[in-house]
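2Fe-2S iron-sulfur cluster binding domain-containing protein
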Amino acid sequence: MPTLLSLPDDISIESALGESVLEAARRADVPIACACGGKAKCSTCRIWILDGADGCPERTALERTLVERLGLGNNVRLACQLRPASDITFRRLVLDETDLRMTSQLLPHRSTSAGELKSVVIFFSDVAGFTHFSETLTPYDVMYLLNRYFTQVAEVIELNDGYIDKFVGDGLMAIFGVNGQDDAPVRAVNAALQTLATVDRLKPFFASMYGIDFDIRVGLHLGEAVIGSVGSPGNERLTAIGDAVNVASRVEAANKEAGTRLLITETLYEQVKNEVEVSDFIRVRLRGTSDRISLYEIKKLKVEAERRLNEKGARETMQLGGKTWHRAVATSELKDGDHKVIEFQALYAVILRRGGRVYAFNNACPHLKLPFFETASRANGHAGRASTFGEDGTLVCRWHHSGFDLDTGEIVRWCEALNEDGTSAGMEMLGDISKNRAPLRLIPCREEDGYIWVGLD
């Protein structure tokens, strides 16, 4: 019979063959949480296998489904599904009611990661001389300056598959490799170099506006960190916890004494050394450590690496501003006054160019969810009436002549073609169909790299 040692309870349990850890724990009065009743519908019964993981059976199909959705680590198992055939030592990961509220995936609208040890690149940046700026400029100007800088840098990081962890004062922390991307190390370096280039383009503007010499310092480190969701239920945010975060922060700070702008640790350098050019390297003792380590000042990417990473138009999607942007249509294919209906997984989108601007909206009227325009595949044989665009910047629905403001989505006119009692001519048996007042669903769009992109959540 397998022996199960539960921590932090320090209780040893004799388990019968074929018995789940949850069943054995309950029999021994070990308080393992289980919000779903042992059906693998939540992860509140999860345990960390400290010893004996190699002898544990493979995950069940139910456990695999939940593990893949939540990103649980290899040594984290569901007590309701694990039926040990040999001795194990485990730690309960949900200890009390607070933990239960934090981890129950039975609650609505939850999207959390329980925490997994991963090899990631941590990116830290800081504004040089920020204390002086904050003391000499008005708070409004400081906020404007930082927001202009952060907005452009955030785009650079997300376009390189990085995840913005947090903004703290004038500091920024980002994570590369959250989803296990093989090229995360070189993409992190690419993002750092592009960030510095972005700052160089901002310098003349800030100099003319405020008379300041704006610059930043960046530190990168490749190491292991626990990646998971932190925050109160409903307000979680993905973050990294571990010594790798502290090291990256200290590497960024080392730039000040070294007189450099971008330093990376030796562990990261070993992964990218064939794809970068180095200006110099230094031996330093980072704050709070006793050993000296080597830090490398990166000058630029080698030509082939830069071409591969920054090739324009190669992607169908990109992450930016918390949205997934989908490449919709080439800019050259949409002349002024033209529109196209593009199919995406979640909806059909209408892309319109009008008066030099580009608009995008859901191809479904808010009234009866009927299409404003037919798709190309259905256009033949459906060439009857079509929705139109008014001179006042409105979209006029072809079905009941509702009008919507293309800038705001607001209702300008509502169901003008219905009868006074709200019925539709010839379809009176449907009754009053005028009640469903809803605005037009606008979709964010942008032009970049010769294409029009639409942003979907």
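thats it. The first helix runs from residue 21 to 27. The domain at 317-456 is CATH 2.102.10.10 (Rieske Iron-sulfur Protein). bye
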